[in-house]
Amino acid sequence: MKRVIIIGASSGMGMEVAKLLLAEGCRLGVAARREDRLQALKQLAPDRVEVQAIDVTAEDATSRLRSLIDRLGGMDLFFYASGIGKQNRTLTPDFELNTVNTNGMGFTRMIGEAYRYFAERGEGHIVAITSIAGTKGLGPAPSYSATKAFQNVYLQSLEQQANARKLNIRFTDIRPGFVDTDLLSGDFRYPMMLKPEKVARQIVSAIHSRRHVKVIDWRYALLTALWRRLPRPLWRHLKL
Ligand SMILES: NC(=O)c1ccc[n+]([C@@H]2O[C@H](COP(=O)([O-])OP(=O)(O)OC[C@H]3O[C@@H](n4cnc5c(N)ncnc54)[C@H](OP(=O)(O)O)[C@@H]3O)[C@@H](O)[C@H]2O)c1
Asked: How buried is residue 35: exposed, middle or buried, by Cβ count under 10 Å (0-12/13-18/19+)?
């Protein structure tokens, strides 16, 4: 029975993936700030779910993660689904800095602890939801786009380092397009919106097939391939 830690299991894709993994018989250690929602998740399989409140921006987040791993009896798979983001065309400083803190610092803190744990143990699998927003700089959401690019490159760096150190650690970078979760709630209508339940099934499939990078869905894979090919002068003048 696989032991899986999910950071960001209180809503959205993290919660949907948690439900699918429970249905597969996994044992879960679930974390986020909203403990009531985690407790509701635990009710689905009380003897197979451990709950831990963790704020990834807090310094005690890594010791809380270690304590959750201990209560689960170890960790085989680390699934990182935490994050914040929204459009910030006015560049409100609080939001820009909080995004860097959560998606940059928090991500580095938690992924690093999982990496060190798997390095000590000799094997493991790290999966993180990043985004297609890291493909190129997106004007409407600068800190979000920049932190997602950071996450993409950070995972790529760790993967190279793990190979160089001959560590048996696998990495899967999940890059969805727009998904209908709390993160996108508000008045703005997003195009090509995906259902979180459907995205979660594709995430679980990417985990099983041990993909390195998975863009969800195929339409966003085509779109980002096109974005990459656009010359800088053209990208600079795009109206998003
Ligand atoms: N929705 C999209 O269109 C989309 C597209 C591509 C990528 N993504 C990425 O997918 C990931 C999951 O987002 P979602 O769309 O599923 O949205 P969501 O429903 O808002 O889920 C975000 C999760 O992150 C957790 N979280 C936020 N800040 C945290 C903190 N400081 N400490 C611990 N946990 C924290 C939240 O839990 P608490 O609030 O309970 O702490 C929640 O469980 C994010 O990284 C997001 O950037 C989303």
From this structure: middle
Which CATH number does the domain housing residue 187 bear? 3.40.50.720
Can you give the pTM of this predicted structure? Answer: 0.98
Q: Give yes or no for residue 81 CB within 6 A of ligand 1.
A: yes
Is the beta carbon of 84 within 6 A of some atom in ligand 1?
yes
- The whole-number mean pLDDT for each consecutive block of 10 residues of the chain, a chain of 240 residues, reads 94 98 98 98 98 98 98 98 96 97 98 98 97 97 98 98 97 97 85 96 98 98 97 94
Evaluate whether 56 touches 82 at the Cβ level (below 8 Å): yes
What confidence score (pLDDT) does residue 186 get?
Answer: 79
E strands, 25-103, where? 27-32, 49-53, 77-80
| Of 7, 11, 107, 199, best ligand 1 pocket probe by most atoms within 8 Å of the beta carbon | 11
Residue among 6, 7, 10 whose CB has most ligand 1 atoms within 8 A, to mutate: 10
Q: How many domains does the chain have?
A: 1
Range of the domain at 89: 3-236
